[in-house]
Amino acid sequence: MARLQEREHGEGSAGVHPSRRSPIDLVHLCRQTAGNTALESEVLGLLVIQIERVRPVIETACESERKRLAHALKGASRNLGAFCLADAAEHLEQAPADQAAMAALLEELENTGRFAREMTAG
């Protein structure tokens, strides 16, 4: 079961899929958008908006709100290929009071947001 999840979510597969080393797996994103670069830019822009909205509120949110925000972020991130962000969101969803999980999510929000902004700026 763990190996199936690794293949589905990209964990442990950076050697097989080098694009998964970046904050967003661009090969996955391309597949999800059928190679439509305008659509890629649009969904990356939406991800940036979601990150910018979540970032300032998730730290001070109550546990149930953290779980809700993390769940929504997890789904959006997996769909776009932001697997590290999705995994960090999933960990916080499972343990909303865990400060290490919060710190990891904040770091991934920063990394993924920066990467997505760079991708849409050009």
Structure at a glance:
This protein has 122 residues and is mainly alpha-helical.
Judging from the principal axes of the Cα atoms, what is the shape?
Answer: elongated
Q: Sketch the topology as an H/E string, one letter per element.
A: HHHHHH
Output the radius of gyration.
14 Å
Q: Give the helix tally.
A: 6
Taken together, the total number of domains comes to 1
Q: What structural class do you assign from the helix and strand content?
A: mainly alpha
Helix content: over 70%
**Unreliable residue runs:** 1-15
Largest sheet: none
Distance between the termini: 40 Å
Question: Please, what is the average pLDDT?
Answer: 87
What fraction strand? Answer: under 5%
Task: Give a topology summary.
Elements: H1 2-9, H2 26-32, H3 37-58, H4 63-80, H5 83-94, H6 99-121
Helix pairs in contact: 3-4, 3-6, 4-5, 5-6
Explain what this protein looks like in three dimensions:
The protein is mainly α. The chain has one domain. The protein is built from six helices and no strands. Helix 3 (about 35-60) runs antiparallel to helix 6, helix 4 (about 65-80) packs antiparallel against helix 5 (about 85-95) and helix 5 (about 85-95) runs antiparallel to helix 6. The longest helix has 23 residues, at about 100-120. The protein starts with a helix and ends with a helix. Keywords: Two-component regulatory system.
Task: Summarize this structure as a short list of keywords or feature phrases.
about 75% helix; disordered N terminus; elongated; about 120 residues; 6 helices; protein kinase activity; HPT_dom_sf
